[in-house]
Amino acid sequence: MSTQVAPTTPAPGGPAAGVHKVGVVGGGTMGNGIAQTFATSGFDVELVDVKPEFVERALATIGKNLDRVAKKQEWPADRAPSILQRVTGGVNLDATTGCQLVVEAVSEDWTLKKQVFETLDRVTPAGVILASNTSSISITEIAAVTKRPDKVIGMHFMNPVPVMQLVEIIRGLATSEATYAFTADLSLRLGKTPVEVNDYPGFVSNRILMPMINEAAFCLMEGVAGREAIDTVMKLGMNHPMGPLALADLIGLDTCLSIMEVLHQGLGDSKYRPCPLLRKMVRAGHLGRKSGRGFYEYPRA
User: Which class in CATH covers the domain with range 206-290?
Assistant: First the structure.
């Protein structure tokens, strides 16, 4: 199967035309961004996380981000509050029962994702499509823990979700053509560009991106250059908008490490061996922006 790019606009009356309510599981950086994007596009959203304080924090983040966009784009005064009202928060996956699609956006941890999909498979109607925002874990393996593998698909958004145009649409071995068509059409209705890729470790985005970040960490560890020099070379020399070390801090060093481990285990090639410095920083709790310290420091506001 060749990689395909879907049309840039949704077809009138397309496969996802009747969707009005979606579920998002996980209220972290990716989850709240996905929820915000759906709500901004007119969908009702059930946002689920494990603790009330996580849900409250996610809703507060969405509210702040919407206010920022409203000021920048000079929205009418009532638009941001009306979008936020479309997002309902909760701590029970049963809340997704009435959704027509559920997107999982929990941590990049196989055991956790397995638990989420087993539960979603049990509590949602059989016809509901279950999507994963995983950045590296096999969609085929995720689908295999459900009784609807034909309706499981990867929907990998980029960070920050409301801004970035790409959605990688990953087919598992059993994903049906109807499920792909539905998900691609829904992505278009979010104003995104869906790109079809096959189910291999890291897919396309992270199979290319993460080894670059990993190599930048090796350059730093081996004293080839300092952090600012490494990032400046890639920004000015390669025209990247952000250097790889700063980008790793934005993504989260724990997430970067998890993806490198999936690549290393899944492809069996030593070139994907995670940098020891990356492992050491994660063990120390230096995870990047979310912890206040990674390759760079981030003073708390």
Answer: mainly alpha
Measured CA to CA, the distance from residue 207 to residue 287 in angstroms comes to 21
DSSP H stretches of helix in 44-138: 52-73, 79-84, 110-123
CATH 3.40.50.720 intervals, the chain: 15-198
| CB 156 within 8 Å of CB 168 | yes
Of these residues, 135, 138, 214, 258, which one is catalytic?
A: 135
Annotated catalytic, 206?
Answer: yes
Helix or strand run (H / E) with residue 262: helix 253-267
The confidence score (pLDDT) of residue 4 equals 66
Residue 31 is which amino acid? Answer: G
End-to-end CA distance of the chain: give it in Å, rounded: 48
> pTM of the predicted model, to two decimals?
0.89
pLDDT tier at 6, thresholds 50, 70, 90: low
For residue 146, the SS3 value is coil
* Residue 135 a catalytic site member: yes
Q: Are the CB atoms for 207 and 200 separated by under 8 Å?
A: yes
Pick the catalytic residue: 156, 187, 214, 258?
Answer: 156
Strand order in the sheet with 21-25: 4-5, 193-198, 166-171, 152-157, 129-132, 101-104, 21-25, 44-48, 87-90
Active-site pick, 32, 138, 187, 206:
206
Of 147, 287, 262, 266, nearest in space to 210 by CA = 262
CATH T-level fold of 15-198: Rossmann fold (3.40.50)
Mean pLDDT for 206-216 is 97
Q: Check whether 8 has a pLDDT greater than 90.
A: no
Q: Are 125 and 99 in contact (CB under 8 A)?
A: no
Q: Is 86 helix (H, G, I), strand (E, B) or coil?
A: coil
* Residue of 46, 104, 108, 168 with catalytic role: 168
